[in-house]
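Dear Dr. L.,

I hope this message finds you well. Following up on our conversation about the binding site, I have prepared a predicted three-dimensional model of the protein together with cobalt (II) ion. For your records, I am including the exact sequence and ligand specification that went into the calculation, followed by the C-alpha cells. Please feel free to forward this to your student if that is useful.
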Amino acid sequence: MTVHIKTAEEIEKMRVAGRLAAEVLEMIAEHVRPGVSTNELDAICHDYIVNIQQAIPAPLNYRGFPKSICTSVNHQVCHGIPSDKKLKNGDIINIDITVIKDGYHGDTSKMFCIGQPSVLAQRVVRISHECLWKGIELARPGTRLGDIGHAIQTHAEANNCSVVREYCGHGIGRQFHEDPQVLHYGKPGTGLLLEPGMTFTIEPMINAGRRQVKLLKDGWTVVTKDHSLSAQWEHTLLITDDGCEVLTLRSEERV
Ligand code: MF3
Ligand code: CO
Ligand code: CO
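The resulting structure of the complex is given below.
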C-alpha cells in the first residue's frame, strides 16, 4: 500500500478540483425534479464540467463507464448509469460527481429527494448523511481508519440500517482511486494512522434493509439484494495539522 502525502502544490490543485466537483452538485440541484431523465442530468453536468469548468468528467470511459456522472435511484446503491428513465415523485437519488482539473481529482455525491419521499426513504437519507459527518468529525492526525469505520457502522446499525461492505471510500489525487481503502465499518484503534497531507474520500452506502448487494448485468449498477432503499453521501477530505478540510464542501453546508 502506498499512501501519497500531498505536497503544498498538490494540495492547492486538490482544493480547486474539490471546489469544482462541489459546484457541479450546486449547479444541478434546480434540475433535479420530477419528469427529468437521468440522461438529461448527465448531459447538463457534462456540458458544465467540459465547457464552463474546462475540466474532465472522470467517470466517462473510466474502466468503460459510459456516462459522465453516476445516478443511483431508490434501491440502487451506487454506480447507476444515467438513462432515459424519468425521475418521479417520491424517488430518492444519489448524484456522484468526479472531476479532473489540472491532473487532480475531486469526488463528491449527495442525495436529492424528488417531491415527497416516504418517511422511510427520508430516514435512510438522513442517517447516511449523519454517518458521513460522524466520519468527517473524526478525520484528523492520530485517528485510525478503523475509528472512522466503526463510528459509521455504529450509527447506521443503531438506527436499524446496514453498511454496504463491497465498496468503500478511497485515497484520491492524481488517481481517481488510490490507497488507502476507507471502509465504512471496522474496529476502533485499527487500520491506517492518519497524517497531515493525506487526501481521501468517505462515502458510506447505507441500506434501509439488509447489507447484501448484487451487480446488475450492465456490469456497473449495484442494487440491494432485498430491494430495500439505499442512500449515500460523499466528500473528499484533506487531513491538516489539527483536523481536516472538506475539499468538496458546498455553500449550503458552510456555517
Ligand atoms: N465516484 C465513484 C466513487 O465515489 C466512482 C465511480 S466509478 C464510475 O468512487 F466509473 F462508475 F464512474
Ligand atoms: Co469516491
Ligand atoms: Co464518487
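In brief: The longest helix spans residues 8-28.

With kind regards,
A. P.
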